Amino acid sequence: MTRREWIALAAGVPRAVAAPDIDRFFEDFLTRWVREDPVLATVMRMLPQADQERLEGQLPDVGDETAHKRITLAREGLVALAKFDLTGLSRDRLFSAQMLQYLLDDVIAEEPFIEFQFPLNQFTGVQARLPSLFTDLHPLRTPRDAENYLSRLAAFGRVLDQASAAMSDRARKGILLPRFILVETVDQMKRFTAAAPHDSVLVASFAKRLESIKELTPAQRSAMAARAEKLAGDTVYPAYRRSLDLLASQQSAARDDAGLWRLRRGADAYAFYLHRYTTTAMTAQEIHRTGLDEVARLEGEMDGVLKHIGYKEGSVKDRMRKLADDNLYPPGPDVRARVLRDYERFVRDARERSLASFLHTPKAPCIVQRIPEFQEANAAANYQSPAPDGSRPGIFRVPLPGDRFSKVRMRTLTYHEAIPGHHFQLALQVEMTSLPRFRRSSPFGTMSAFSEGWGLYAERLASDLGWYAGDPVSDLGRLDSELFRARRLVVDTGIHAMKWTREQSIDYGIQRSEVDRYVVMPGQACSYKIGQLKMLQLRERARKQMGARFDLKQYHDVVLRNGSIPLELLEKTVVEWIRGQV
Q: What is the per-residue pLDDT across 381-415, written as a single tens digit (0 to 9) for each?
């Protein structure tokens, strides 16, 4: 059924006023959605115990058929939602209904572009994401959890083979990843299988975590670890090698053209992804121009600060490279441990500082973890939300590849990914029990412009509040981080709409692994700056119109209290707040 046909069907559905029933509908439809995805079930941890335990021994199928089933379910949800008379709902319920309609519309709108998603790639591919499920998300608190881990491990090879089959199907239609992405993905998979199964992250982390299950005897733990090792060697590794060989074989037919423009309907696909990730109607050209303007502004500001602290010669890029080299951790066998300890210290300090600017802060703690070694060469720092049931804290995950670690951007990275950035926004969202559950955990998709915009806003907020006072090196790290997000606007649109090459993008100031990320996640890199600019614009609007009545704590509460929402709804919410205060 096309989207137009769905709209016609929904328009003909009889409506009824039943406000309490819509709350039940939100929860019942979410339950249906979660039951269809074992990984989401692990993330949400909301099902009855029997269902939860059953699903946590499974892995979801991968492929276009699964995606189409998801879209069919989204259509069914919209038809059911259309039965409610929204004019009879309370303000909060109406907001939730609008959010569900927006999210399900977005799921359905991707249908023409499903084949542009590649289930094997260096950044979001199955071979990269599934290990994180095992090491970070899968619970290991009971013997049943351990058995479920082994059941999932037994299914790992099947899922990889499904991903390979989807890649083969795309290749037959002439839809291939760029050659350099295939090379990067093959190299990543080789790194994963280079270790003996016993030393694999899938086995080693399992054996270590088994120690916390007190109901298991040492002999039982040893036997389970041995089963994991056998599954890794007999099923997981062979599937990786089959996938690896397939991707290697596709390299001869692939090209180095990077953008979606290279594919039929690629321009339409990119317009869709820009809308998904920015939640605006901005065109690629408008976003490109915004990026160029922001790059010029930020480079000018950085030039002044660099000169002030004695870095006067060369381009901003060259001087920032020199600044990073001048602020390296001394080498040593424990250097990574020192880096992680400093990140932990920055998190604690940020939490104390934030109390003066926020009405509400999360109950869940935020911890720091290193990203697994096999993945970190292609990974960026990120944040994982706490589990709704309190079984997992918020996690600030950092990659530590190589042997050189600079201090320049550590503080601003902490403010973005942890506090007051993603941890405050996403952990608070999880804890907002007044919201329907689907708005607390983003099971239908994330509002990237809101969440990543908030992360970048948090970096700027730290500067506005004076947190960098006396530390111009870290302040330059903050400016460089914002410059990086401005360049993303230019490069992402350059790659996918203006036929920029990978080399052009790197020459513009974006490192190779980041460029490769934009290639496989078109549009997502634009969400950061577009979201931040909107939040700063709304804050300034409120400050000007409210004058002495403006309260930063209240502004942050207004922005965060609805969870992740499209920027259009955010603006409407802030404008209504301003009107109520003046």
A: 999 999 877 888 999 999 999 889 999 999 999 99
121: left (phi over 0), alpha (psi -120 to 50) or beta: beta
Short-list 455, 467, 457, CA closest to 354? 467
377 pLDDT band, cuts 50/70/90, is confident
Instruction: Bin 257: left if φ > 0, else alpha if -120 < ψ < 50, else beta.
Output: beta
Residue pair 114/62 in contact (Cβ under 8 Å)? The answer is no
- Asked if 151 and 57 touch (Cβ cutoff 8 Å), the reply is yes
The one-letter code for the residue type at 488 is R
Whole-number Å distance between alpha carbons of 521 and 474? 29
Please name the amino acid found at residue 373: E
Whose tokens are 């970190």? That residue is: 376
Running DSSP on this structure, what letter comes out for residue 368? E
User: pTM for this structure?
Assistant: 0.89
Residue type at position 64:
D
Q: Count how many residues are written for the chain.
A: 582
499 residue type, one letter: K
Q: Which residues pair with 396 in a beta bridge?
A: 368, 383
**pLDDT at residue 4 greater than cutoff 70:** no
Which tokens is 153 given?
């491990």
3-state DSSP call for residue 35?
Answer: helix
- The span from the CA of 502 to the CA of 504, in Å, is 6
CA distance 323 to 18: 62
* pLDDT cut 70: percent of the chain above it: 96
Contact between residue 550 and residue 543 where contact means Cβ atoms under 8 Å apart: yes
Helix (H) or strand (E) holding 366: strand 366-370
What are the φ/ψ torsions at residue 395 (nearest 5 degrees)?
-125, 120
Domain positions in the chain are: 268-534
User: How far is residue 445 CA from its own chain's centroid?
Assistant: 10
SS3 122: coil
Could you give phi then psi for residue 186, rounded to 5 degrees? -60, -45
pLDDT at 513 over 70: yes
